[in-house]
Write a structure and sequence with these properties.
With about 425 residues, the chain is an alpha+beta fold. The chain has 2 domains: about 200 residues, no CATH class; about 180 residues, no CATH class. The chain is about 55% helix and about 20% strand. It contains 16 helices and 12 strands. The strands form 2 sheets. Strands 1, 3, 4, 5, 6, 7, 8, 9, 11 and 12 form a 10-stranded mixed beta sheet that branches. It is elongated.
Length: about 425
Amino acid sequence: MNFSLFVARRLFRNSGGRKSVSRPAIMIAMWGVAIGLAVMIVSVCVVMGFKSEISSKAVGIGSHIQIMNYDALVSNAPEPIAVPPAFVQKIENVDGVRHVQRFCNKEGILKTDDAFKGILLHGVGPEFDPSFLKENLVDGEIPLFSDTVSTNRIVISQQMADELHLQVGMKVFAYFFEQAVRTRRFTVAGIYRTNMSDFDKTLVFTDLYTCNRLNGWETDQYGGVEITVKDFSQTDLVAGQLVKMVNRQTDAYGATYVTMTIQELYPQIFAWLSLLDVNVWVILALMVAVAGFTMISGLLIIILERTNFIGIMKALGATNSGIRHIFLCFSVFVIGKGLFWGNIIGIGLVALQYYFGVFHLDAATYYVDVVPVLFNGWYILAINIATMLICILVLVLPSYLISRIHPAKSIRFE
Protein backbone atom coordinates (compact mmCIF):
# COMPACT_ATOMS: atom_id res chain seq x y z
CA MET A 1 0.00 0.00 0.00
CA ASN A 2 2.87 2.35 0.75
CA PHE A 3 4.28 1.64 -2.72
CA SER A 4 0.88 2.42 -4.30
CA LEU A 5 0.68 5.73 -2.44
CA PHE A 6 4.25 6.61 -3.47
CA VAL A 7 3.61 5.95 -7.16
CA ALA A 8 0.19 7.66 -7.06
CA ARG A 9 1.74 10.74 -5.48
CA ARG A 10 4.40 10.90 -8.20
CA LEU A 11 1.77 10.50 -10.92
CA PHE A 12 -0.39 13.21 -9.34
CA ARG A 13 2.52 15.66 -9.18
CA ASN A 14 3.43 15.01 -12.81
CA SER A 15 -0.13 15.04 -14.16
CA GLY A 16 -0.36 18.81 -14.45
CA GLY A 17 2.11 19.19 -17.26
CA ARG A 18 1.02 21.16 -20.29
CA LYS A 19 1.66 18.20 -22.61
CA SER A 20 -0.49 15.90 -20.52
CA VAL A 21 -3.63 14.79 -22.36
CA SER A 22 -5.38 14.00 -19.08
CA ARG A 23 -4.74 17.43 -17.54
CA PRO A 24 -8.11 18.92 -18.71
CA ALA A 25 -9.95 15.78 -17.58
CA ILE A 26 -8.32 15.96 -14.17
CA MET A 27 -9.22 19.62 -13.84
CA ILE A 28 -12.82 18.97 -14.88
CA ALA A 29 -13.08 16.09 -12.40
CA MET A 30 -11.56 18.16 -9.59
CA TRP A 31 -13.82 21.16 -10.23
CA GLY A 32 -16.81 18.87 -10.64
CA VAL A 33 -16.20 17.61 -7.11
CA ALA A 34 -15.48 21.14 -5.84
CA ILE A 35 -18.61 22.73 -7.31
CA GLY A 36 -20.78 19.80 -6.26
CA LEU A 37 -19.51 20.01 -2.68
CA ALA A 38 -19.93 23.79 -2.59
CA VAL A 39 -23.54 23.50 -3.75
CA MET A 40 -24.22 20.82 -1.13
CA ILE A 41 -22.72 22.91 1.67
CA VAL A 42 -24.67 26.01 0.66
CA SER A 43 -27.91 24.02 0.27
CA VAL A 44 -27.64 22.38 3.68
CA CYS A 45 -26.69 25.61 5.45
CA VAL A 46 -29.52 27.56 3.79
CA VAL A 47 -32.16 24.94 4.60
CA MET A 48 -30.95 24.67 8.19
CA GLY A 49 -31.04 28.47 8.39
CA PHE A 50 -34.58 28.57 7.02
CA LYS A 51 -35.80 25.92 9.42
CA SER A 52 -34.14 27.57 12.39
CA GLU A 53 -35.35 31.09 11.51
CA ILE A 54 -38.95 30.16 10.70
CA SER A 55 -39.23 27.78 13.65
CA SER A 56 -37.89 30.40 16.04
CA LYS A 57 -40.42 32.94 14.74
CA ALA A 58 -43.31 30.52 15.09
CA VAL A 59 -42.15 29.60 18.60
CA GLY A 60 -41.61 33.26 19.49
CA ILE A 61 -45.24 33.98 18.70
CA GLY A 62 -46.90 30.77 19.85
CA SER A 63 -44.32 29.11 22.16
CA HIS A 64 -43.39 25.41 21.93
CA ILE A 65 -46.50 24.03 23.65
CA GLN A 66 -49.92 25.40 24.57
CA ILE A 67 -52.47 24.12 27.05
CA MET A 68 -55.98 25.35 26.28
CA ASN A 69 -59.66 24.49 26.38
CA TYR A 70 -60.60 21.49 24.24
CA ASP A 71 -63.77 23.28 23.13
CA ALA A 72 -61.65 26.09 21.65
CA LEU A 73 -60.16 23.62 19.16
CA VAL A 74 -63.57 22.31 18.16
CA SER A 75 -65.35 25.67 17.86
CA ASN A 76 -62.33 27.72 16.75
CA ALA A 77 -63.47 30.44 19.17
CA PRO A 78 -61.94 31.69 22.44
CA GLU A 79 -62.94 29.42 25.33
CA PRO A 80 -61.40 29.83 28.80
CA ILE A 81 -59.70 27.47 31.19
CA ALA A 82 -58.94 28.09 34.84
CA VAL A 83 -55.23 28.64 35.49
CA PRO A 84 -54.67 28.81 39.24
CA PRO A 85 -51.13 29.46 40.56
CA ALA A 86 -50.82 25.83 41.67
CA PHE A 87 -51.50 24.69 38.09
CA VAL A 88 -48.75 26.96 36.73
CA GLN A 89 -46.33 25.75 39.39
CA LYS A 90 -47.11 22.15 38.48
CA ILE A 91 -46.24 22.80 34.84
CA GLU A 92 -43.03 24.66 35.74
CA ASN A 93 -41.86 21.61 37.69
CA VAL A 94 -42.03 19.37 34.61
CA ASP A 95 -38.55 18.39 33.44
CA GLY A 96 -37.53 20.34 30.33
CA VAL A 97 -39.89 23.30 30.82
CA ARG A 98 -38.14 26.68 30.74
CA HIS A 99 -40.96 29.24 30.95
CA VAL A 100 -44.74 29.34 31.43
CA GLN A 101 -47.02 32.31 30.70
CA ARG A 102 -50.77 32.89 30.50
CA PHE A 103 -52.52 34.32 27.45
CA CYS A 104 -55.94 35.37 26.24
CA ASN A 105 -57.33 36.16 22.76
CA LYS A 106 -60.17 38.37 21.55
CA GLU A 107 -61.19 39.16 17.98
CA GLY A 108 -62.05 42.75 17.07
CA ILE A 109 -61.54 45.63 14.68
CA LEU A 110 -59.07 48.53 14.76
CA LYS A 111 -60.48 51.63 13.12
CA THR A 112 -59.04 54.99 12.14
CA ASP A 113 -60.73 57.86 10.34
CA ASP A 114 -60.03 56.42 6.89
CA ALA A 115 -59.39 52.69 7.37
CA PHE A 116 -60.21 49.67 9.51
CA LYS A 117 -58.71 46.21 10.01
CA GLY A 118 -59.69 42.97 11.71
CA ILE A 119 -57.36 41.97 14.56
CA LEU A 120 -56.73 39.25 17.09
CA LEU A 121 -56.06 40.91 20.44
CA HIS A 122 -53.50 38.82 22.31
CA GLY A 123 -53.46 39.53 26.03
CA VAL A 124 -50.38 38.68 28.09
CA GLY A 125 -49.53 39.17 31.75
CA PRO A 126 -46.54 40.36 33.79
CA GLU A 127 -44.76 37.01 33.35
CA PHE A 128 -44.72 37.52 29.54
CA ASP A 129 -41.26 36.99 28.00
CA PRO A 130 -40.75 40.03 25.71
CA SER A 131 -37.42 38.89 24.20
CA PHE A 132 -38.91 37.84 20.84
CA LEU A 133 -40.88 41.07 20.47
CA LYS A 134 -37.80 43.12 21.38
CA GLU A 135 -35.76 41.36 18.70
CA ASN A 136 -38.39 42.26 16.11
CA LEU A 137 -39.32 45.71 17.42
CA VAL A 138 -38.90 48.46 14.81
CA ASP A 139 -40.24 51.42 16.79
CA GLY A 140 -41.44 52.31 20.28
CA GLU A 141 -41.21 50.03 23.30
CA ILE A 142 -42.74 46.96 24.87
CA PRO A 143 -44.97 48.10 27.77
CA LEU A 144 -45.19 46.30 31.10
CA PHE A 145 -48.31 44.19 30.62
CA SER A 146 -50.58 43.65 33.62
CA ASP A 147 -53.20 41.13 34.75
CA THR A 148 -54.83 43.44 37.31
CA VAL A 149 -55.21 46.81 35.56
CA SER A 150 -55.59 48.08 32.00
CA THR A 151 -52.96 50.43 30.56
CA ASN A 152 -54.79 50.64 27.20
CA ARG A 153 -51.47 50.28 25.38
CA ILE A 154 -50.93 47.98 22.42
CA VAL A 155 -48.10 46.72 20.24
CA ILE A 156 -49.04 46.34 16.57
CA SER A 157 -47.22 45.08 13.49
CA GLN A 158 -45.56 47.22 10.85
CA GLN A 159 -48.09 45.87 8.33
CA MET A 160 -50.98 47.17 10.44
CA ALA A 161 -49.26 50.49 11.04
CA ASP A 162 -48.81 50.98 7.29
CA GLU A 163 -52.38 50.00 6.41
CA LEU A 164 -53.96 52.13 9.15
CA HIS A 165 -51.38 54.96 8.91
CA LEU A 166 -50.49 54.65 12.58
CA GLN A 167 -47.32 55.64 14.42
CA VAL A 168 -46.04 55.17 17.95
CA GLY A 169 -47.92 57.42 20.38
CA MET A 170 -51.04 57.69 18.23
CA LYS A 171 -54.43 56.65 19.59
CA VAL A 172 -56.80 54.27 17.84
CA PHE A 173 -60.28 52.91 18.56
CA ALA A 174 -60.96 49.18 18.76
CA TYR A 175 -64.41 47.60 18.48
CA PHE A 176 -65.42 44.21 19.88
CA PHE A 177 -68.72 42.47 19.17
CA GLU A 178 -70.77 40.26 21.50
CA GLN A 179 -74.42 40.97 22.29
CA ALA A 180 -73.46 44.63 22.05
CA VAL A 181 -70.57 46.59 20.57
CA ARG A 182 -67.79 47.32 23.06
CA THR A 183 -65.28 50.09 22.36
CA ARG A 184 -61.76 50.63 23.66
CA ARG A 185 -59.32 53.42 22.91
CA PHE A 186 -55.73 52.25 22.77
CA THR A 187 -52.39 54.01 22.46
CA VAL A 188 -49.79 52.50 20.11
CA ALA A 189 -46.79 51.79 22.34
CA GLY A 190 -44.67 49.83 19.87
CA ILE A 191 -44.47 48.47 16.35
CA TYR A 192 -42.98 45.08 15.51
CA ARG A 193 -42.21 43.21 12.28
CA THR A 194 -41.66 39.46 12.11
CA ASN A 195 -42.31 39.10 8.33
CA MET A 196 -44.63 36.20 9.22
CA SER A 197 -47.59 37.57 7.29
CA ASP A 198 -50.09 35.16 8.86
CA PHE A 199 -49.36 36.74 12.24
CA ASP A 200 -48.38 40.29 11.31
CA LYS A 201 -51.67 40.99 9.58
CA THR A 202 -53.81 40.37 12.69
CA LEU A 203 -51.84 39.94 15.95
CA VAL A 204 -51.97 42.81 18.49
CA PHE A 205 -50.42 42.55 21.96
CA THR A 206 -52.04 44.12 25.02
CA ASP A 207 -52.73 43.56 28.73
CA LEU A 208 -54.09 40.23 29.90
CA TYR A 209 -56.54 42.12 32.12
CA THR A 210 -58.04 44.04 29.19
CA CYS A 211 -58.50 40.92 27.08
CA ASN A 212 -60.12 38.98 29.93
CA ARG A 213 -62.54 41.82 30.67
CA LEU A 214 -63.55 42.00 27.01
CA ASN A 215 -64.28 38.26 27.03
CA GLY A 216 -66.26 38.57 30.27
CA TRP A 217 -64.34 35.77 31.98
CA GLU A 218 -63.63 35.20 35.67
CA THR A 219 -60.40 36.59 37.12
CA ASP A 220 -58.74 33.14 37.13
CA GLN A 221 -59.87 32.19 33.63
CA TYR A 222 -57.61 32.63 30.59
CA GLY A 223 -57.33 31.46 27.01
CA GLY A 224 -54.58 29.08 28.07
CA VAL A 225 -50.90 28.87 28.93
CA GLU A 226 -47.90 29.03 26.63
CA ILE A 227 -44.95 26.81 27.52
CA THR A 228 -41.38 27.23 26.32
CA VAL A 229 -39.04 24.24 26.58
CA LYS A 230 -35.29 24.30 27.11
CA ASP A 231 -34.51 22.29 23.97
CA PHE A 232 -36.67 22.46 20.84
CA SER A 233 -35.77 18.87 19.93
CA GLN A 234 -37.36 17.75 23.22
CA THR A 235 -40.72 19.42 22.52
CA ASP A 236 -42.57 16.18 21.85
CA LEU A 237 -41.06 14.54 24.94
CA VAL A 238 -42.13 17.41 27.22
CA ALA A 239 -45.54 17.55 25.53
CA GLY A 240 -45.97 13.84 26.23
CA GLN A 241 -45.41 14.44 29.94
CA LEU A 242 -47.93 17.29 29.94
CA VAL A 243 -50.48 15.18 28.08
CA LYS A 244 -50.31 12.53 30.79
CA MET A 245 -50.55 15.19 33.48
CA VAL A 246 -53.40 17.46 32.30
CA ASN A 247 -55.22 16.04 29.25
CA ARG A 248 -58.86 15.06 29.86
CA GLN A 249 -58.80 16.73 33.25
CA THR A 250 -61.37 19.43 33.96
CA ASP A 251 -61.04 22.72 35.80
CA ALA A 252 -63.35 24.26 38.41
CA TYR A 253 -65.71 25.46 35.67
CA GLY A 254 -65.94 22.15 33.81
CA ALA A 255 -63.56 23.02 30.97
CA THR A 256 -61.35 20.20 29.64
CA TYR A 257 -57.60 20.73 29.25
CA VAL A 258 -55.84 19.78 26.03
CA THR A 259 -52.14 20.02 25.10
CA MET A 260 -50.96 21.09 21.64
CA THR A 261 -47.42 21.45 20.28
CA ILE A 262 -46.39 24.25 17.93
CA GLN A 263 -46.24 21.74 15.05
CA GLU A 264 -49.87 20.77 15.70
CA LEU A 265 -51.01 24.39 16.01
CA TYR A 266 -49.36 25.52 12.76
CA PRO A 267 -48.99 22.36 10.64
CA GLN A 268 -48.83 24.29 7.35
CA ILE A 269 -45.62 26.06 8.37
CA PHE A 270 -43.81 22.93 9.51
CA ALA A 271 -45.09 20.89 6.56
CA TRP A 272 -43.48 23.48 4.29
CA LEU A 273 -40.23 23.23 6.24
CA SER A 274 -40.25 19.44 5.98
CA LEU A 275 -40.58 19.75 2.18
CA LEU A 276 -37.30 21.67 2.18
CA ASP A 277 -35.59 18.52 3.51
CA VAL A 278 -36.76 16.62 0.42
CA ASN A 279 -35.33 19.33 -1.82
CA VAL A 280 -31.98 19.09 -0.05
CA TRP A 281 -31.80 15.32 -0.46
CA VAL A 282 -32.51 15.71 -4.18
CA ILE A 283 -29.75 18.33 -4.50
CA LEU A 284 -27.30 16.16 -2.54
CA ALA A 285 -28.04 13.15 -4.75
CA LEU A 286 -27.65 15.16 -7.97
CA MET A 287 -24.40 16.82 -6.89
CA VAL A 288 -22.85 13.54 -5.73
CA ALA A 289 -23.89 11.96 -9.05
CA VAL A 290 -22.26 14.81 -10.98
CA ALA A 291 -19.07 14.51 -8.94
CA GLY A 292 -19.04 10.72 -9.38
CA PHE A 293 -19.52 10.82 -13.16
CA THR A 294 -16.84 13.46 -13.66
CA MET A 295 -14.43 11.36 -11.59
CA ILE A 296 -15.25 8.23 -13.63
CA SER A 297 -14.59 10.02 -16.91
CA GLY A 298 -11.40 11.51 -15.49
CA LEU A 299 -10.14 8.13 -14.26
CA LEU A 300 -10.81 6.44 -17.61
CA ILE A 301 -8.90 9.16 -19.46
CA ILE A 302 -6.00 8.88 -17.03
CA ILE A 303 -5.90 5.08 -17.47
CA LEU A 304 -5.91 5.39 -21.25
CA GLU A 305 -3.13 7.97 -21.19
CA ARG A 306 -1.07 5.78 -18.84
CA THR A 307 -1.56 2.56 -20.83
CA ASN A 308 2.16 2.38 -21.56
CA PHE A 309 2.95 2.89 -17.88
CA ILE A 310 0.48 0.14 -16.90
CA GLY A 311 2.08 -2.30 -19.37
CA ILE A 312 5.57 -1.60 -18.01
CA MET A 313 4.35 -2.06 -14.41
CA LYS A 314 2.80 -5.41 -15.33
CA ALA A 315 5.98 -6.48 -17.14
CA LEU A 316 7.90 -5.69 -13.95
CA GLY A 317 5.62 -7.97 -11.96
CA ALA A 318 2.95 -5.61 -10.63
CA THR A 319 -0.47 -7.20 -10.14
CA ASN A 320 -3.75 -5.85 -11.45
CA SER A 321 -4.85 -5.23 -7.87
CA GLY A 322 -1.69 -3.26 -7.09
CA ILE A 323 -2.04 -1.08 -10.18
CA ARG A 324 -5.73 -0.48 -9.41
CA HIS A 325 -4.71 0.72 -5.96
CA ILE A 326 -2.29 3.17 -7.55
CA PHE A 327 -4.99 4.74 -9.70
CA LEU A 328 -7.54 4.72 -6.90
CA CYS A 329 -5.02 6.52 -4.67
CA PHE A 330 -4.43 8.93 -7.54
CA SER A 331 -8.20 9.53 -7.67
CA VAL A 332 -8.26 10.16 -3.91
CA PHE A 333 -5.71 12.95 -4.41
CA VAL A 334 -7.89 14.51 -7.13
CA ILE A 335 -11.03 14.18 -5.01
CA GLY A 336 -9.21 15.58 -1.98
CA LYS A 337 -8.11 18.64 -3.93
CA GLY A 338 -11.68 19.09 -5.16
CA LEU A 339 -13.01 18.82 -1.60
CA PHE A 340 -10.47 21.40 -0.46
CA TRP A 341 -11.60 24.00 -3.00
CA GLY A 342 -15.24 23.01 -2.55
CA ASN A 343 -15.03 23.72 1.17
CA ILE A 344 -13.38 27.07 0.55
CA ILE A 345 -16.05 28.11 -1.97
CA GLY A 346 -19.02 26.71 -0.06
CA ILE A 347 -18.04 27.91 3.41
CA GLY A 348 -16.93 31.23 1.93
CA LEU A 349 -20.36 31.81 0.36
CA VAL A 350 -22.10 30.84 3.61
CA ALA A 351 -19.88 33.20 5.61
CA LEU A 352 -20.45 36.00 3.10
CA GLN A 353 -24.22 35.61 3.42
CA TYR A 354 -24.09 35.26 7.21
CA TYR A 355 -22.07 38.42 7.83
CA PHE A 356 -23.20 40.66 4.95
CA GLY A 357 -26.65 39.33 3.88
CA VAL A 358 -25.87 39.66 0.17
CA PHE A 359 -28.86 37.66 -1.09
CA HIS A 360 -32.37 38.93 -0.34
CA LEU A 361 -35.84 37.39 -0.53
CA ASP A 362 -39.44 38.52 -0.76
CA ALA A 363 -40.50 38.54 2.91
CA ALA A 364 -44.18 38.23 1.99
CA THR A 365 -43.50 34.82 0.42
CA TYR A 366 -40.59 33.39 2.42
CA TYR A 367 -41.19 35.04 5.86
CA VAL A 368 -37.63 36.45 5.83
CA ASP A 369 -36.11 39.33 3.87
CA VAL A 370 -32.56 37.91 3.79
CA VAL A 371 -31.55 34.33 2.96
CA PRO A 372 -30.82 32.78 6.38
CA VAL A 373 -27.86 30.44 6.82
CA LEU A 374 -26.81 28.23 9.71
CA PHE A 375 -23.37 26.64 9.84
CA ASN A 376 -23.03 23.19 11.39
CA GLY A 377 -19.51 21.78 11.33
CA TRP A 378 -20.66 18.18 11.87
CA TYR A 379 -22.98 18.31 8.86
CA ILE A 380 -20.18 19.76 6.70
CA LEU A 381 -17.81 17.03 7.85
CA ALA A 382 -20.42 14.36 7.11
CA ILE A 383 -20.96 15.73 3.58
CA ASN A 384 -17.20 15.70 2.94
CA ILE A 385 -16.80 12.13 4.16
CA ALA A 386 -19.86 10.89 2.25
CA THR A 387 -18.71 12.58 -0.96
CA MET A 388 -15.23 11.08 -0.66
CA LEU A 389 -16.52 7.55 0.04
CA ILE A 390 -19.18 7.59 -2.70
CA CYS A 391 -16.75 8.92 -5.30
CA ILE A 392 -14.20 6.23 -4.43
CA LEU A 393 -16.84 3.48 -4.52
CA VAL A 394 -18.08 4.46 -7.99
CA LEU A 395 -14.47 4.35 -9.25
CA VAL A 396 -13.87 0.76 -8.17
CA LEU A 397 -15.68 -0.80 -11.16
CA PRO A 398 -14.07 1.42 -13.85
CA SER A 399 -10.65 0.66 -12.33
CA TYR A 400 -11.05 -3.00 -13.45
CA LEU A 401 -10.36 -1.76 -16.98
CA ILE A 402 -6.69 -2.11 -15.98
CA SER A 403 -6.98 -5.92 -15.93
CA ARG A 404 -7.86 -5.88 -19.65
CA ILE A 405 -4.64 -4.11 -20.64
CA HIS A 406 -2.08 -6.59 -22.07
CA PRO A 407 1.60 -5.77 -21.26
CA ALA A 408 3.01 -6.66 -24.71
CA LYS A 409 0.51 -4.49 -26.58
CA SER A 410 0.42 -1.65 -24.10
CA ILE A 411 4.20 -1.12 -24.00
CA ARG A 412 4.07 -0.32 -27.75
CA PHE A 413 1.01 1.93 -27.19
CA GLU A 414 1.47 5.63 -27.89
